[in-house]
Amino acid sequence: MQARTRASRERKRQADQREISDLQRACETLELGPEDRAFSLLPLSPRTRQGLKRVGFLDMTPIQKEAVPIALRGRDVLGAARTGSGKTLAFLIPVLEQLYKQRWSNADGLGALVISPTRELAMQIFDVLRSIGGQHTFSAGLVIGGKDLKHEQDRLRKMNILIATPGRLLQHLDQTVGFDVSNLQVLVLDEADRILDMGFANTLNAILEHLPSTRQPLLFSATQTRRVKDLARLSLRDPAYVAGEADSLMPQHLEQFYMVVELPRKLDVLFSFLRTHTQCKILVFMSSCRQVQFVHEVFCKLRPGLSLMALHGKQKQIRRLKIFDDFRRSQHAALFATDIAARGLDFPAVDWVVQVDAPESRDTYIHRVGRTARYHAHGKALLFVLPSEEQGMLSALREVDVPITDIKARDTKIQHTAPQLQAFLFQDAELKHLAQKAFISYVRSVHLHKDKATFNAVALPLPEFAASLGLPNAPKIKVVQEARARAAAAAATAVPESSSEDESPRVRTKHDRLFGRTNQTVLSDHYAALLDQPEPEDDDGDPPLSDQTLVDLRTEPERADLAEASADGRALAAAVLVRSRAQGAPALLEGVVDSQERGRGLGRRLIETILEGHHGPVD
Q1: Are the C-beta atoms of residues 558 and 613 closer than 8 Å to each other?
Q2: Residues in the chain, pLDDT under 70
Q3: Where are the alpha helices (H) located in 29-107, listed in sequence order?
Q4: What is the DSSP secondary-structure string of 408-473?
Q5: Fewer CB within 10 Å, N- or C-terminus of the chain?
Q6: 571-576 long-range contacts, Cβ below 8 Å, gap at least 24?
Q7: DSSP for 539-579, written as a single string
C-alpha cells in the first residue's frame, strides 16, 4: 500500500512537472493574431482558467493582450493604458502563473508583492485577486494602514502574495520579526507614476533596500513614467513598454466640458448642478480634506435632493470602507472626494465627474475623469476653472490631445447659497471653524501649485470667497501675507527707467515710522477735525494767547522771581536732607510738609505776579 501511494505521488509529481514545462514552452512561442482576444488562447494553468471563467472574464482588453504574454515570459513590463482598461488583470494573471510554475508553497515565503498608493485601490486589487485566484493554494494578504499592526504581524510570515500600501509595508519591513522577502519573485507597482513621485520617494527607496535585486518588476499606470532615473531605481532590465490602444489615454465614450466660474460662485454653481441632476451618480473632486468636509456638511443642510457622501484622508479606515462600498452600490448619489478617489478605483455607472478645483497636473485630470466611462460605458466630465486659470489649464490639456468643450451656466438656474451659509455659521461655531479651515486649505493648495503663472494665490478675490462660504471676513493666511510682502518689496526696490542714476532711495528710520503713525482709536476722526478748525477769537477780537506768548511777555522782574523760587526750592531740599540725616525719619516727614507749604506759597505768589503784569491787580 505504501509503495502504491509513493508511486502515485511520483506519477502526480511528474505530470505536474510536464504540465509546467509545457506551459513554459508555450509562453516562449506564443504569438497572438490581431483578432485573438480570448483568454483560452493563452497558455494558462487550469486553476487560473477556472477562476477567470467563474468570474466571467472571457475576452482580453488591449492592454491585457499586449502585457500578459510578455510578462508570462518573465520580462520586465512598463504598462500604460487609459483608466478602466483592465490593468489589474494584466498584472495579477502573471503573478499567479509565475508562482504556479515554480510550485510555490507556504514554506517558500513571500513570492509576489503588489504596492498600491491608496488603501481603497489596494482593497480593490485584493478583491480581484480573490475572485480569480480562488482555485490556487497560495495564501494572500492585505496590509494597509488603519488596522491593528499586531494582528497583521501574526499572519504576515505565512503570506505568498501580499498587497500593501507603501507606509504600512515599510513599517512591517522594519518592525516585524521573521518577515522574509529574500525570495521575492515579482514586484508590482500599480499607479507606478504616483508611487515614484516625490510623495513616496523616500518610502519607496527604503522598501527597495529590503527587496532582492533579482525580481521581475511590473509597472502599470494610466500615465506611465519613462524617466531613466525612476527606472534605474527599480533595477529594470530591458523593460517592454506596452500601451494598449496608443491612440488616446482618455476613455472612448467620455464627453468632456469645462465652465469658467468665478471663485465666489463655485458653491452656487455646484449646488445648482446637483439640484438639476438628482437622478445621476456624481463624483465631485476637491483639492483638500477640509473643503470636502465643509461642503458635505453644509450641502446636507441645504438638501439638494440626492444622497450625499464624503471620502477623504482624515476619516478612519472603517468609515472609509463603508463609504466606498455604499457609493459603489448606490444608483443616484453624489460623493465629495479628494484625490484619494482619483486613481484606480472602480465605481460602477458613474454618470458625471465634476472637478470643482482645478487639478494639479494634466495627469491628475486624466485619472480623475477616468472614474467614469470605464471600459465600454459612457460618461461625462465637467471642470470648473477660474478666469485666471483658463488659458494655462486648456493649453496643458491640449498637449495631451484632450478634447474639451466650453459650456456656460444659466444665471436663472443658479441658486445663491451664501445667505443660508451665513445663517448656518452664525448658529454653529464648529461649522464656522470648519469653514475657516476650508478657506485656508484651498488657498494653500493654490499656493502649492507648481505652475505659478496659472495658479496665483495672491491674486484670488479672498474677501469675496470668504463671503461665499458664509464667513464675515477672510482669515489671515501666512503664505499669502508673505507673498504679498515679497511682491511689495520687489516693487519698492525696482528703480523706474525714467529716474536718474544719482537719485538714491531715502532710508526710512524708526523715527520716521514713529512720526508717521496715526491714531487708531475711536476719537481719531474727531481729533483730526478739531485740528482742521480755525482757532476761536477772544471777546475783544484778539486771538488767544499761547504758552509761548506768555513766556515772551514775562518781564525781567518776573524772570528774577522765577529764578529765586527755583533757588529757594533747591536750598530747602538740601536743608531737609541734612535734617533727615541728623534727626531721622520724623525730621524728614516734617521737612517734606514744610517744603510742600512753602512750595505752594511760592507758586501762588508767582502766578499773582504774572497776572498783575498782564491784567492788573488780582482781587
Answers
A1: yes
A2: 1-4, 197-199, 224-233, 244-249, 494-619
A3: 46-55, 62-72, 87-101
A4: ---GGGPPP-HHHHHHHHHH-HHHHHHHHHHHHHHHHHHHT-S-TTT--STTS-HHHHHHHTT-SS
A5: C
A6: 572/598, 572/599
A7: TTSPPPP-HHHHHHH--HHHHHHHHHHHHHHHHHHHHHHHH
| Residue type for position 272 | S
The single residue listed with the C-alpha cell 518776573 is: 558
pLDDT at 611: 56
pLDDT value, residue 481 = 86
The pLDDT, as a whole number, for residue 294 is 97
Residue located via cell numbers 488596522: 147
Buried b / exposed e across 213-237, counting CB within 10 Å, b at 16+? eebbbbbbbbbbbeeeebbeebebe
Which of 485-513 are b and which e, b meaning 16 or more Cβ less than 10 Å from the residue's Cβ? eeeeeeeeeeeeeeeeeeeeeeeeeeeee
150 to 23, 37, 155, 158, 317: CA distances (angstroms):
40, 45, 9, 15, 16
Q: Which three cell numbers stand for residue 137?
A: 493554494
DSSP assignment letter at 536:
P
Res 388: pLDDT: 93
**91/85 Cα distance (integer angstroms):** 12
Cα–Cα distances in angstroms (integers) from residue 249 to residues 186, 239, 361, in the given order:
27, 21, 15
- CA 28 to CA 242: how far, in whole Å? 18
391/25 Cα distance (integer angstroms): 55
Query: Which residues touch 565 (CB under 8 Å, ≥6 apart)?
Result: 602, 603, 605, 606
Measure the CA–CA gap between 406 and 15, rounded to whole angstroms: 64
Compute the Cα dihedral for 451, 453, 458, 460 and give only its sign.
negative
Note whether 233 and 205 are within 8 A (CB): yes
For the record, the C-alpha cell of 493 comes out as 526696490
Distance separating alpha carbons of residues 124 and 320, to the nearest angstrom:
13
SS (H, E, C) 309-327: EEECCCCCHHHHHHHHHHH
Query: Looking at 191-332, which runs of residues are DSSP E strands?
Result: 216-221, 240-242, 254-260, 281-285, 307-311
pTM of the model: 0.70
Report the C-alpha gap between 4 and 468 in whole angstroms: 83
Q: Using alpha carbons, list the distances in angstroms from residue 335 to 44, 293, 370, 372, 591.
A: 39, 11, 15, 13, 88
Position 227: which residue type? R
Rounded Cα distance between 193 and 187, Å, is 15
Residues 372 and 353 sit within 8 Å (Cβ to Cβ): yes
* 3-state percent breakdown (helix, strand, coil) of the chain, nearest 5: 50, 10, 40
How many C-beta atoms lie closer than 10 Å to residue 547's C-beta?
7
Q: Give pLDDT, residue 584.
A: 52
